[in-house]
Structure formats: C-alpha cells, structure tokens
Amino acid sequence: MWKKIIRSYDYSLIAAFFLLCLFGLMMVYSASSVTAVQRYEVASDYFYNKQKIHIMIASFFFIVAAIFPYKAYKNSKFLFFMVAGIVALLGILSFYGTISNNARSWIRIGGFSLQPSEFAKLVIIIYMSAIYAKKQKYINSFNKGVTPPVILLVFLCMIIASEPDFGTAFIIFLIGCTIIISSGMKFKSMWKLVVLGMMAALILSPLILYKKDDIFTEGKMSRINGYLDPFEHQEGDGYQLVNSYLAIGSGGVLGRGLGQSVQKLGYLPEPHTDFIISVISEELGVFGVTIVVGGLCFIVLRGIYIAIKCRDPFGTMMAVGIASMIAIQSAINLGGVTGLIPITGVPLPFISYGGSSLILLAISLGILVNISMFAKYEQLYKK
C-alpha cells in the first residue's frame, strides 16, 4: 500500500516548489545585499540567512501537509477551532498589532513576526470548501447552502480591510468567489449573491463617505497618483514605479548579469520584497522572468488539473482555491511592478522575502500535493 501511495505523489509539483524557493533565495541575496548594509546597517547576507530559515520552516510544513490526509480538514471541530483561532488573531491586531506600511497587520513577539491575514487566506479556502462540500444536496438553497460561508468571507474581509490592508482583503474576497464558482452552485444562486452584494454596498456607501478620510488615506492616494502618472510624480509618489520600469527596461533578453543590478543600489526601495521581479528582470532579463512566471503558471495549471481529476467535491474546491490564491497574488504583484494596477504591497509567491507568506504558501501547496496523491491513488488503484 505504501509503495502505491509513494508512486501516486506528484513529484513535478514538489520539484516546482523547491526550485522556486531556491531560485527566490538566490535572488533575495542578490536583491537585498546592498539594502541590508545601506538602509538597515546589518550584514549583507542578513535577509539571505533569515530567508534560509523561512525556507527550512516552510519545507517542514510542506512535507507535513503533503503527508497529512486532506479529508481530515473537513472535521467540524477542526473547522471551529481554525476559524475561532484566525478571528482571535485578527482581533488581537486591533490592540497589539505592529504598524508596517501604514497597516496594523503584524504581531511581533520577540524576534518572531506573524501576519495573521496571510493565514486567513487558507482558512477561508478550507472552511468554504468544507461547508459547500457538506451542503452539496442543497447547495442552491439560499439560506441553508449559499449564505453561511459567504457571511464568514465578508466578515474576514472587513476585519482585514479595517487594518487597513485592502490588498489582502481583496485577494481573500476573490479566492472566495472562485470557490463559490466551483462549488456546483447554479448561476441563479450566484446572481442572487451579486445582487445582495450590490445592495450591501449601497447601504454602506454613506458610512464609506463619512469615513473617507480614514479609508482613503494619504498613503493610499499616493499609490493611486503614482499609478496614474508615475513620471509626473517620479520624485515622489511615482518613484518606486519609475525605478521598476528602469530595472525592467534595462534587463533585455539576458540581463546585466547576476548581482549586477543598478536599481537595487538604493534607487528601488525594498527590492527583495514586492519589487524582486524588477531586480530579476534587470539581472537575468527575459530568461529569468520566464523561469519565475513559468514556474508559477505550472503550479496554477497543475492545481486546476488536479481539481478536474479529483472526484471529491471538497478536494476539488480546495485545489481551485489554492490555485486561484497563487494566481491572484502573482497577478497582483506583477501587475503592480509593471504599472498595470496600483501598487498593493503584495509579495510574489515563493520568490519574495518573507516568512508568513512563504509558510502559508508551503502549507497550501502541501495540501494540494496531498489532494493530487489521493486523486491519483483512487484513479489507479480503486477502480
């Protein structure tokens, strides 16, 4: 039996995870070495060493999630404690959260930092997939089947938006929408949700206008101004985007060479986090960008393929949710650094520096690998 299980694992997906992490580690060192010394006054390999620890922790959770049977996540007690835990963590942020990039989204204890909103993404994937899988018989009953998971989705999005972290709240909302679409719900039921959402927006519009100064802060509006006309504001709001353009444009096909980026020498703020793809483009050119985008596309498409092959509604919806999370986050990051959308501060999956995001992605991908293993095992050996 164990031999059959081992043969059923998707080793291409496992390889994609580790290769992207290692490629990201290499680029974190290249992108952060100057910033570490000049801005933070630490050793040039400071962020590289911390990211190595992040990858080791993430790899452990990836392996555990890949082995642990995904169907156990559907347990009612597990769902309750999982949801209660994330709500409690988000609640703690209101009192003890640390402000970073104008958002109270971090909990710092000693030298350890945690961003609960990152893990809210996986919570909403597991919870909505589990509830809709259990409600398949009456999935189109608006009161019993449709609305309960949507209530939690909206509640979590509102809490995270109040930090304020609109980028993460928007990602979670879109992830929830993809799970609803893949739940087997009829178009009529989904249309009712759209109408209900529009009505809620109209009801809340006076409150939004009243709180507009708190919602549309100077920091938020600066990102909009920088997006609309970066060269007009290149000394201020458009500074990041203009330097991102310069990095991307100067890379060409093969790039300047690994470690030879000019924009990371103090011109491009935080080159190892949100704008790491700009440094990759400058140093490794189209070739380097293709490695990253190709790897991310492979994982997303593989996730969709696993969802199609899985016979279990719970596994199907979780696979769709995980694939959509990686796709949406990648699109928002790449859209921001290329000026297609305003900059949101969303990291590039598996590549950008950061612990919370990488651990969350590792657990999610581990679950996807486990779903793939069960789907293949049942297809080959349980006919």
Brief write-up:
With 383 residues, this protein is mainly alpha-helical.
Within the largest sheet, what's the order of strands? 1-2-3
Structural class: mainly alpha
How many helices? The count is 14
Global geometry: globular
The fraction of residues assigned to DSSP E strands is under 5%
- Please, how many domains? 1
Q: Please estimate the helix content.
A: over 70%
By DSSP, the count of extended strands is 3
Gap between N and C termini:
15 Å
**Succession of helices and strands:** HHHHEEEHHHHHHHHHH
Poorly predicted regions: none
Radius of gyration (Å): 21 Å
What integer is the average pLDDT? 83
Protein name: Probable peptidoglycan glycosyltransferase FtsW
Pfam family, one: FTSW_RODA_SPOVE
Enzyme class: transferase
Function: Peptidoglycan polymerase that is essential for cell division.
Question: What does this protein structure show overall?
Answer:
By secondary structure, the protein is mainly alpha-helical. The chain has one domain (2-381). Helix content is 70%, strand content 3%. It has helices at residues 2-7, 11-38, 46-67, 76-96, 116-134, 142-161, 166-181, 187-210, 212-215, 218-228, 239-251, 276-309, 313-337, 355-381, and strands at residues 98-100, 103-109, 112-114. A 3-stranded antiparallel sheet has the order 1-2-3, covered by helices on one side. Strand 1 and strand 2 (103-109) form a beta hairpin. Helix 2 packs antiparallel against helix 3 (46-67) and helix 5 packs parallel to helix 7. It is globular and about 60 Å long. The model has no long low-confidence stretch (mean pLDDT 83).
